[in-house]
Amino acid sequence: MSRFLRIGASRQIIILVGVQLVLLSYFLLNTAVKKLHGDNTVRGVDSQVPDLSAERQVERNLLINYQESRLNNLENVHNKKSKNNLETVQSAKPLNRTELKSNDSLANTDVDYLIYLIRFTFPKTGDSKYPGFNETKSHSIPLDRRTNDLPSKQCRSHKWVIPSDMKVSVVIPFKNEPWSTLLRTVIGILKRTPLEYLHEIILVDDHSTRKYLLEPLKRVLGPFKHISVIRTPYKMGPASTRNYGAQHTKGNVIIFFDSHCEVSSGWMEPLLDAISKDRTRIVAPVINVILPDTMESVGSNQRMKTQINWSLGALFGPFKESVWGKHNITDPIPQPSLMGAVFAMDREYYFKIGGMGDYFNGWGGEDVDLAIKSWLCGGGLALCRCSLVGHVYKAHPYVLTNIPLKNVALMAEAWMGEYLPITKCALVRGNFLPKVDTTILKSTLALKKKLKCKPFKWYLQNVLPELEIPEENTTFNLLHAQRSSLSVGTDMKTLKFIPDVREIACGVSVVNDRLKCKGQCLTIKNDTLIFDTCDVDDKYQYWKYSNDEIRPYFDKKLCVAKKDKHDQRATLKPCNETVDKIEYQSRFASGCIKTTL
After folding, report:
1. Residue 45, helix vs strand vs coil
2. Which residues contact 484 (CB under 8 A, 6 or more apart)?
3. pLDDT tens track for 418-477
4. Beta strands in 437-513 (DSSP E)
5. What is the H or E stretch that residue 17 is in?
6. CATH 3.90.550.10 fits 87-392, yes or no
7. Alpha-carbon distance 395 to 499, whole Å?
8. CB-based contacts of 370: which residues, under 8 Å, 6+ apart?
9. Is 422 helix (H, G, I), strand (E, B) or coil?
10. What pTM was computed for the model?
11. Per the UniProt record, which EC number(s) apply here (predicted)?
12. Which residue has the higher pLDDT, 386 or 595?
């Protein structure tokens, strides 16, 4: 008995000594990191990095050398493995996600070390003046958090076929992006991507003014040879910044990210599998919505596709059953347009079709232009439903479909052909379009001729047949809420307030005091507004409309309004100033569209 007691006491002593050694190691590491960053470890945006003394410089070099040696060892192992793969595997190989080992990704200890450095370098409180989302809330969320948005069991068990020579360059353009959303994008990619396919991550700074995005960002990411930070030579805007980043890539596949995304496990493999089967198409993941106020991931509706309207704005609409039903969830499913948050392309194909238009001025339209160009010029676009990526949908200070008119004008002149008058009519300012730079237009049309691009009529017939050609008396209009940032759209038949979609998915014909969409008339049924079969004898289908409101003929004391803050559907409520009414804004006079099409 005493023998066992002696053994137990010895074990207790060993455990106590071990705990003391762990605490001592943590204290020494913490001290070293604090010395590395001086007194500036948790200062705000305007902090300046102090000059390092000789002693601190030595400590800094030791830490950096240690980190570089770890990454060099990883790269040596990776290169050796890649060489062996090339010698033994001459064709594409199946990759089963369930068989991946932890060493297929950048070592977790190295990524954890990066997270540790980030937390000691950047401010913990956000800038309340930064538009778009709750910055302080974002700073408090783990940089490597896992959301509940996981691919289905069928996706996880599927064997993706990826050529062994596929190397991915991730390009992340940013400007004054809060550090937490930017680096959460980077950390997620590092932790949830097989290293054998990830060649590099390039962060492209389009002249940020936040000081922590300058030297401190480079200093923290510097030891990681997979990551580089480059600066644009002048303010370029989203489209040209992506092109600038693409020019610096070395991989044969480019994946573009917005600077506020979070990837799910297994996000990359479906994209690479789809590109390997067709190198002339753009592929995109399912975008899960991350709310800007709470930073909560609320998922998405995978049955919705990205499409366009006659204003050349991007919006969501349901997949046709005939298309949805013939594709397995692991199949890339064709979709008409692109929301540019995340998309992947073969590098050679990207440059073949001219990349993103350098002529775009500021935000808006470049993703739609790229999608139309790909479809008409020999490629395509597909949605990969097994690839899930979260995206913070910032609150925008501008209407999303009111993209700069110059951008729309260039797109319309380049691609719409005989349908150009419809786009002109559908724009906010009626028939007015700004004069486009003829030099830019000539280069675009020359590329179009060189690539033997199809006319837009082909797009309507084969890609988006549900985009109906409006009748002559169609009045394109904008329906929106007076006291809400949510706009009115159509979800199937029901008139609803839909975030970030500012226009219903078709032109609204105003015929004999009825509002028609896709041949159906706006009516009220069971206290909800829907588009239903037109009936000349149905008194609930006749409306009086002005720039201020829409009222039903059967009771002109009522107005079209949102049900309540929890129910996004449109209904009828008494007209008064407290009601969030729907305004009707005519885009152009009736008869703008000619019947020559």
Report:
1. coil
2. 497, 562, 580
3. 998 888 777 655 445 667 777 777 888 899 999 999 999 999 999 999 887 776 655 555
4. 474-475, 477-481, 487-491, 494-498, 508-511
5. helix 2-37
6. yes
7. 9
8. 282, 338, 340, 353, 355, 356, 357
9. helix
10. 0.71
11. 2.4.1.-
12. 386
Quick one: pLDDT at residue 461? 95
**Rounded distance, CA 135 to CA 394, Å?**
11
SS3 425: helix
* Residue 420 parent element (H or E): helix 420-426
Provide the 3-class DSSP secondary structure of residue 262.
Answer: strand
Beta strands 508-511 and 494-498 are unpaired
First to last CA, the chain: 100
Tell me the per-residue pLDDT of 17-51, one tens digit each, with 9 for 90 and over: 554 555 555 555 555 544 444 433 333 333 333 34
Outline where DSSP puts E strands in 447-557. Answer: 474-475, 477-481, 487-491, 494-498, 508-511, 514-517, 520-525, 528-532, 543-545, 550-552
CA distance 407 to 393: 22
**Cβ 357 vs Cβ 239: under 8 Å:** yes
- Cα atoms in the 13 Å half-sphere on the side-chain side of 525: 12
Q: Token pair for residue 506?
A: 């078709």
pLDDT one-digit tens code per residue, 379-412: 999 999 999 999 998 765 434 344 567 788 888 8
For the stretch 133-152, pLDDT in tens is 888 899 999 999 987 667 88
Half-sphere exposure of residue 8, counting CA atoms within 13 Å on the CB side? 5
So what's the pLDDT on residue 18? Answer: 58
Would you call 422 exposed, middle or buried from its count of C-beta atoms within 10 A (0-12, 13-18, 19+)?
Answer: buried
> Tokens standing for 543?
């409306």
In the chain, where are the structural domains located? 87-392, 474-586
- Residue 245 three-state SS: helix
CA distance 541 to 519: 13
Q: Is 135 helix (H, G, I), strand (E, B) or coil?
A: helix
Classified by CATH at the fold level, domain 474-586 comes out as Trefoil (Acidic Fibroblast Growth Factor, subunit A) (2.80.10)
Other CB atoms within a 10 A radius of the CB of residue 461 amount to 11
Closest CA to 190 of 126, 134, 116, 109: 109
The answer for residues whose C-beta is within 8 angstroms of residue 403's C-beta and 6 or more apart is 312, 313, 363, 364, 365
Q: Which tokens is 496 given? A: 């609803």
Check pLDDT > 60 for residue 298.
yes
CA angle 414, 416, 417 (to 5 degrees): 90
Pairing of strands 281-290, 380-392: parallel
Give the distance from CA 581 to its chain's centroid: 31
Can you tell me the distance from the alpha carbon of 585 to that of 483, in angstroms, rounded to the nearest whole number?
A: 15
